[in-house]
Amino acid sequence: MDGGGDDTPDIKDESHVNVHNSTDNDAPSTDTLKPRGVCGMYAGLFLVSFSVMLNYFVSGTYQAYDTSTWQEHSLLSTINVVRGVIAAVALPVVAKLSDIIGRFECFILISIFFVLGNIIQAAASTIQAFAVGSLFSQIGYTRIQLVGEVIVADTTTLRTRLFFLFFSTFPNLITVSVSGNVTSSVLQATTWRWGYGIDRSVWAAIGIAFFGSVTYTAQSEFLYTVLYVCYDFSINAATHVGSDRAGIIAGQVFVGLASSLVTFPNIIIAMAVTKHEDVAVLTSLWLVMNWAGYAVGNCITGAIWTQLLYSELQKNLGGINAAAVDMVYAQPLYVVPEFPVGTPERTAIIDSYRYIEKLLVIATV
């Protein structure tokens, strides 16, 4: 693949684009796509990204409720640590598999994991069963992400690759706005179980990625709970942080911009000095560090949350309503609304959660 000089076209100028099914340089097996087919493929990637990202946003809200259902809200970060580790470990395997059996064939295979995980989560009767479903879903989600980015590497030049890697994130402009409406409507009409079922049926270098994921995850893991408990956000607003709390919104916007503007250009630089047959492995390594950072961020969050929140609640709330301490800690999304904003109990709860969130933000600096 050309490194990107002045005579390099923005989109490959050949009469067709080869989506590689093998890394055998002597006799590669390829699927030939005409330009119209490439356009259709990217339209499909956009729709897949929309579905997966909508699922990502709403499932974060549902997950806060399902852990509360079993009075295990503090296990939220533990589940996500395991998900991050599994995601990191299996990525290189999928990268090589996509080279052997083909990008699209691999995409179909991993989609099965995604759908199966969603089914298990929706039907789970215990926190352990839900965790298993989360693992299957995570395997599918990260592999879909990987294969999509490898396909982009197969069909673009270095000059346009950054744009097309960003292309898969464009649906966020829509999903971040509608996800709150989705979760609000679902949770008001039924339970989080139906939420998983509905959302899943809609879709039946490297070091920077790691530390960026640590920073983003550590400060955002329990963000929904904090917004709902401390700032009296509605389900809709807490899901996509859409309210007039300008400081919170601005902070999240800057975190997102910094993560994207630093992470994506660095993977393009890494691709520029890598042979094309190694791009799939390189991309998997990049995503491995991303998800390793996700796991480390969850470790930091889980340690701070589980070790300090309960003692803060005892200190602030214990003298006002000692009986509520255990319930608020185990089932905050169900118990806290019983104490309206302005009551002594809610004020004590807000002080406790704000203190913990401040520590989480400080830990990421």
Automatic annotation (TrEMBL):
<keyword id="KW-0406">Ion transport</keyword>
<feature type="transmembrane region" description="Helical">
    <location>
        <begin position="107"/>
        <end position="131"/>
    </location>
</feature>
<keyword id="KW-0812">Transmembrane</keyword>
<feature type="transmembrane region" description="Helical">
    <location>
        <begin position="39"/>
        <end position="58"/>
    </location>
</feature>
<feature type="transmembrane region" description="Helical">
    <location>
        <begin position="253"/>
        <end position="273"/>
    </location>
</feature>
<comment type="similarity">
    <text>Belongs to the major facilitator superfamily.</text>
</comment>
<keyword id="KW-0472">Membrane</keyword>
<feature type="transmembrane region" description="Helical">
    <location>
        <begin position="285"/>
        <end position="305"/>
    </location>
</feature>
<feature type="transmembrane region" description="Helical">
    <location>
        <begin position="194"/>
        <end position="216"/>
    </location>
</feature>
<feature type="transmembrane region" description="Helical">
    <location>
        <begin position="162"/>
        <end position="182"/>
    </location>
</feature>
<protein>
    <submittedName>
        <fullName>Ferrioxamine B transporter</fullName>
    </submittedName>
</protein>
<dbReference type="InterPro" id="IPR036259">
    <property type="entry name" value="MFS_trans_sf"/>
</dbReference>
<keyword id="KW-0813">Transport</keyword>
<feature type="compositionally biased region" description="Polar residues">
    <location>
        <begin position="18"/>
        <end position="31"/>
    </location>
</feature>
<feature type="transmembrane region" description="Helical">
    <location>
        <begin position="78"/>
        <end position="95"/>
    </location>
</feature>
<keyword id="KW-1133">Transmembrane helix</keyword>
<feature type="region of interest" description="Disordered">
    <location>
        <begin position="1"/>
        <end position="31"/>
    </location>
</feature>
